[in-house]
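Subject: for your reference before the review

Hello V.,

The reviewers asked for a structural picture of the protein, and I figured it would be easier to keep everything in one thread rather than splitting it across files. Below is the amino acid sequence we used in the manuscript, unchanged from the supplementary table.
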Amino acid sequence: EWNAKASSLLGYSKQEVLGKNLVANFITQEFRDSVNQVLSSALLGKETANFEFPLFTKSGERKDILLNATTRRGPNGEVIGVIGVGQDITQIREVTDEQERVADDLSRLIETANAPIFGVDVNGMVTEWNRKAAEMLGYAKQETVGMNFVERFIQRENQKSVSDVLQKALSGRETANFSLPLLSKHGQRYTVLLNATTRRDAKGDVTGVVGVGQDITELNQVMAESKRVADDLMRLIETANAPIFGIDTQGNVT
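And here is what came back from the structure prediction:
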């Protein structure tokens, strides 16, 4: 058998293929053993569903086929051959390969980013924990995956506000520039400016939250020190045992 769809897909007419060995003539060397095994099994009455293998057209183009191999029987139930019903999944395979490539690129980007990145599932359990987060907080990825992010890594007084941000993201309301306090494995406090982004699957269903942060601990320390110095200066001016005044650029007392 060689129907019109097989002819249009592969470029061989029915007259060109009848009587020729399917595996020897139309299957590439590296897949001949596996295809032979599927056909031999069907000839023994053991049918195979969703077997994936490549076929090459008359012009050398590769086509990926998803095959159901069904035993063909004569009027008395005797096995007389195999019928293969296939589906051309070439385009689907190309899309899937591209999606896998993008996913791999994204995973590498997350892992090597110079910013702490974490992810949680819909139950708040850690699913992502990149190298920068591990370096900053002292917890290896293996120590964090599967742990409740809020309960394990957020101090009690901040747990409600962090939980609220995560719950909002899980309902599709993302948060930018949230000040997230974190405590390292060794007790050091960090402040991270966080963007909490909803994570979705291919169907658009929410699967969790990805948090991309910026360590602003040192910036906060500098700002706090600047405020302290400014406050000290104001107190010094106010309480100095000497007349002190100030004017603006127009000469008005300030």
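For the response letter, the relevant points are probably these. The beta strands are 48-56, 62-73, 79-88, 117-121, 126-129, 175-183, 189-200, 206-215. Residues 90-112 form the longest helix (23 residues).

Happy to draft the paragraph if you're swamped.

O.
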